[in-house]
Taurine catabolism dioxygenase TauD, TfdA family
Amino acid sequence: MIQPIATAAAWRPAMLEASGAWLRRLTAEEVDDLRVAFRRLQATGKPMLGMTREDFPLGPFGAVLAEAAREMEAGIGFRTIRGIPVGDYTAEEAKLLFWAIGTHLGVARPQGKASQLISDVRDAGGTYRGTGGRGYNTNAELDFHTDGSDVVALLCLKTARSGGLSRLASSVAIHDALLAERPELVETLYGLFPHSRQKEEAADETPTYMAPVYSLKSGHFAARYIRNHIRSTQLIEGEPRLTERQHAALDAIQEMASSDAFCFSMWLEPGDLQLVNNHVLIHSRTHYEDFEEPERKRHLLRLWLAVPEGRPLCDAMREVYKNVAPGSVRGGFKGQNLPPGLAAWQARAAAALGMRDTPY
């Protein structure tokens, strides 16, 4: 029998608003620590795949990241760190700084057909709906969803003229509420659903695969809700058709996540670093209108991270993550253009964090 999960990640918005536990404002000492570490990294002249976390040694700011990592896995599932001095740096310098911060949290994973390790989240005229649609390169309102990694990290560089509100909901709270109200839908969500790789599969991957939305392994819950990828399979001839109950279950998640009872919203400011555990939270963003001037347009940077604190995943998630063992290097979209030097860098990064490497 399916049981409630009832962990600290099963929050409701009022709980976060009352506690303020989701936000951590940096002190002057912590910002100075970050600046000093970044100057040291810049002095080495090393590119992203040439550096290690030892080239970016952290003191007080490192403690902030460690606290955030604990909160993501054992607490409410996310943390927003406010006050990264992005205004002091060019866009390329900010990208290197973001990458360096990521090395203290986990191992970066490729994010698409181009095998990019950092994505520029901005409106590039992309199309959200469809068999090849991705949301990060559009200004569209996004369905609530998870990303393809243990953790998604966003660093805000510039905000839009209007809109672009960041929204989060607890998959754990939704699971438990839905279990009480519609247990048959929860049972359905533990079953397999067809998913599309959105035409970004690697040469050794199939265009589609089957995976559950909810899963449980050794007492650890994980949700993977990417409605757009499921919807895309229904446009592909020969793919399994969703049942009425599957449609109803997917609808229920979106409706509950969007409601005031479950949705927690925040405006990300330049210098905000948002860290989210994909296994326990789903996220979204409202439609936005941008500035006309290119230099003022909304711009965030995104990392997908495999983290040493990562939970065990069920075998049905192997098609997605490749490795389901806890603390393994896993997840992401391998794509078709893995950069030279990635395998060697990944092995070093995994060893530095005590993680199990998963070679390509």
Summary: Residues 38 and 341 are 22 Å apart (CA to CA).
